[in-house]
Amino acid sequence: MSAPRVSTGRAWPWLQRLGLVATGGLLLGLVIRPELTLRLLWDVAIPLVPASLLLSPLVWRNVCPLATVNMAGNRFGARRRASPAWTTRANVVGIVLFAALVPARRFLLNDDGAALA
Question: Which of 16, 24, 53, 96 has the most C-beta neighbours closer than 10 Å?
Fold first, then answer.
């Protein structure tokens, strides 16, 4: 006998909204109460992401706030393709930002809520 399948089709949009609201709350908290919010973010929220990936990558993929915002463009009809030149420039900017922000976590983003927000 196989286990009954649970339909989550209607749950994902609500979980996505909850993820967006939680992200907004974290951003607001980083400005209003940075000490508490930094502790919640680095000690609770960030460790939960890899844990959720170990349990089921589908869960994080469907509730990730960045993925939700990215998919919103598809829902509202923005299906144009970016030009190859624009895509190349965007990739270079992304790599440069990544290279700058990873080391910045140590001396800036770990302790400054406004900078992290």
Answer: 16
Distance CA 117, CA 47 (A): 18
Tokens (6 digits) for 7: 């339909």
Angle at 40 between CA 17 and CA 115, to 5 degrees: 85
Measured distance CA(35)–CA(42) in Å, rounded: 11
Please name which of 45, 48, 8, 12 lies closest in space to residue 30, comparing C-alpha atoms. Answer: 45
DSSP helix/strand/coil, 51: helix
Beta carbons within 10 angstroms of residue 67's beta carbon: 14
Residue with tokens 């209607």, as numbered in its chain: 10
pTM of the model: 0.72
Task: Please report, as a single letter, which amino acid is at residue 57.
Answer: P
Residue 83: φ, ψ to 5°: -70, 150
- Two tokens at 48? 């939960």
d(CA 44, CA 49): 9
Distance CA 103, CA 112 (A): 14
